[in-house]
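Side project, low priority. Logging it here so it doesn't get lost.
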Amino acid sequence: MSTILPTTPTHAVPAHLAASGRFEQVVQQGVVWLYGAVVVVLVGFSSGGFLPPSWGWAGFACFAVAAAAWLLRGDLQLGRPAFAFIAALVAFAAWAATSALWSTSVTSSLRDAQRDIAYVAIVTAGVALATRAAATALAGGVTTGVSVLSLYALATRVAPGRFSEYTSAAYGYRLTQPLGYWNAVGLVAAFALLLCLGFAARGRSLAFRALAAAALPALAATAFFTFSRGAWAAIAVGLAVALVLDPRRLGLCINALVAAPFAAIAVLEASRRPGLTHVGATLAEARSDGHAFAVVVLGLCAASATVTVGVSLLERRVVVGAVTRRLFATGLAVSALVAVGVGWQQVGSPWHISARIWNGLNAPPQKFTPDVTQRLFQLTSSGRLQIWKGALEGFSDRPLLGYGAGTFWEVWPTKRHQSLPTTQAHSVVFGTLAELGLPGMALFAVALLAPLGAAVRARRRPLVPLLAAAYAAWLFHAAADWDWQLLAVGAAGLLVGCALVVEGGTTPVRWLRPIPLACVSIVGAGLMFYALLGDRALASADGAIRAGKPAVALTSLQRASRLQPWSSEPYAARATVEIMRGREADAAGQLRLAIQKDEQSWTLWQRLAQISTGRARSHALAEVHRLNPHP
């Protein structure tokens, strides 16, 4: 009896099913890309995500997306790095909320916890959406988002007066829009530059590589116009991490060296435009230099894309042997040794350089000059070392629990040794130690280091080393500035972290199930929606106060008091309304109610002293001096 063999393999997939699978994959990648881009752009254009209402709507929307994604994913394969990433962030947010029990300011602690929960929502949705096949799409979406923010910031410089009111004196003539803080704009530009370098070197399609390379000169110009030294230091850190992790260093170095001249020329041309770099430049001077520079940058972008396409085509035809790689590595090592030798001879020994750097960091800012580019060559820390010292002193007072989330603004006045007005610790590390103690810092460290651990395991995947470079640059900058307080900046970094933990997660956590995860996400969405209602009421009251409508403000504040009974903010705002109505006695009463909610707030005591008399005023001033002994 004969056997009839099939003419096609039994494992072959019908053409229509294969096409359907490819279509579904393309759709999934498009959705993931859109999520990464939209979150970064929308929060970025909402004052960088600094204000609480943006935390509420972002958290609500992202938790809703996460719930839908969990329910739609039939094959839940959440890897261990991704689970550790989310679990540690959830534990950190829970610890921040719990710190309200011992906090010096319940209002501030629950505010900070709200922002931390928004981060949890953003990360949860990112991990829920991005399967391993779509991790690159998530990174691409973030790259698109941070590039849009950076290019918008550059547009405010090359087309002054079109996107915002022109002034060459504001913040030393540094780019601040749309995030509101120049160092944050510098970090976003550096972050975008590293990500675009990754896609230019390792993008799957020639078109994507060309597009990413085209953005590099413009992104370098954006970083330059922020005059942020931290941004350039972050780029250096990122490139170092990429070189350490990437097994294909030769290809990375070639692509970086090809793109570097165009970015360098863009920075050089930018520095030669006094209308764009000097405080006091007239609008006509700024427009003239801005328009001329825009033409130069566009030409450099086109040239960068063209050369990158040429290198990409050449890479496909040239096979680099082991001998060439060894020679290249030897050349890099020799070049590094020569650079060290020349630097030793010209500048001094390493310990001499270290002493100069330390003295420069401790020195006060140098004398103001109209040429803002000179700031890039200053070593001063702008008071950061003193602020970090104050944070560490606060940590030494309460090493286990800290003062409570979001309370550094109350800690700093009692610890500062110089008159440096600030409400931020300018470091996510030192700020967390002072506010949440060792347990909070441990949870935070697990969360933030999980993506780097995943990157080490997945370093042979093409894009992973450059994603890790951008993530490391973000971590480095966040350790020296208040990036965590800007939701857009933190979201960009954490979403790249999502891509890394998804790329590096091969062993799934088998006991997790979609429905419980979806239920938890729905509960989170409900919490953030409730928080959003209170924040919207406060924002509405603030708008009414600014518009001179006390009656409208009172209605909104009554709603805010019901929604946020723990907060001092509605009562403090109502005091402002009562002053507008000429009722200072009622205003004093509202301030006393606010102080009952936040007894350690020297600003509330100061406001009470301003409208009080006699013993009440003396008592309020004594409290101000106790809480802020170094005004």
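Brief comment: Residues 1-11 have pLDDT under 50 and may be disordered.
Revisit when time allows.
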